[in-house]
UniProtKB/TrEMBL annotation:
Lineage, highest ranks first: Bacteria, Pseudomonadati, Pseudomonadota, Alphaproteobacteria, Hyphomicrobiales
Organism name: Rhizobium aethiopicum
Protein name: UDP-N-acetylglucosamine--N-acetylmuramyl-(pentapeptide) pyrophosphoryl-undecaprenol N-acetylglucosamine transferase
Pfam families: Glyco_tran_28_C (PF04101), Glyco_transf_28 (PF03033)
Record bears the keyword Transferase: yes
One Gene Ontology term from the biological process aspect of the record: cell division
Amino acid sequence: MSKGIVLLAAGGTGGHVFPAEALAFKLKERGYSVHLVTDSRAERYAGKFPAEEIHVVPSATIGSKNPVAVARSLWTLWSGMRAAKRLIQRLKPVIVVGFGGYPTVPPLLAATRLGVASMLHEQNAVMGRANKALASRVKAIAGGFLPESGDAFSDKTVATGNPVRPAILATAEQPYLPSHPGEPFNLVVFGGSQGAQYFSKAMPTAISLLDDGLRARLRVTQQVRSEDMEMVSGCVAKLEMGADIAPFFNDMAERLARAHLVICRSGASTVSEISVIGRPAILVPYPHALDHDQAANAAALAATGGAKVIPQSELSPERIASILSHVMNDPDKLSHMAAAAKLAGKPDAANLLADMVEAIAAGKTVSEFKRTRA
């Protein structure tokens, strides 16, 4: 018999959906039923998300200064909140948990108005706009990289870390096996839904600058936007190198576990997954992030020695080639970085977040929950 329904709300990108998915598995293990509210972008993840049902509620972001566009967005949000209110009244969840992104706004607003227990999980070191708008209304905030002190909402914040998907936890036990000179070198490159374009242009050029011996060792996995596939595939063919190029990889956890080096953006889920598995990384924060959250996320892992952070403006193809030339012949350096990344990982974040969800659903305050952890 179910302990009750937990309604999770998340924007339709991997950065929002993956932590929600990790929590959903834990809650199912503990006897809860899980429903997800999101938008149509999350369809690619729907097959793996352990929800009894996935609901799409109207929502919109207010990013335009055009009065007509603003009015249209406000009407969509109002419609979404009414739809979310009907959904919550029908499901009667014990708690509603938001994971950021504008699709979380209607269900969390509806929950707080109906007096249903509510909380947020913020993946990044800088709170996103949707979560910031909701933070004063909810009972608690779980933070991936947020501090528990010195912040406007620190009195209701618990630093849980970012839950990672079961596939990541399953591969986290695989030790880092260095690649020595003359051996195959697995390089994983990805940029997320917004940030892959830069790598599509920079990486083939960088690889073309390597000497033939190093290029022959490379085994590349690279996430590429659909519109860049033809260009990158053509470059790979000309370079006559081993590479898997695709817009999305269902087995990315296994590819990360086999990686000798990762070059990627520094979204919160990415940084958390790399650290839990324990792989050395070159982090390139997405330069157009509104709140510069990726730079703050990257700094957290770099501080442990598990990653090197390089702004995109300073990372030319020539510099990438120089970095690869050095690290491919320095397995000890990469092994030390892998160990440092592993120390920064929080593999138990999903359990801690599930504990917090249960506590808030049961009516406990953040202070009471923190005392139980002490």
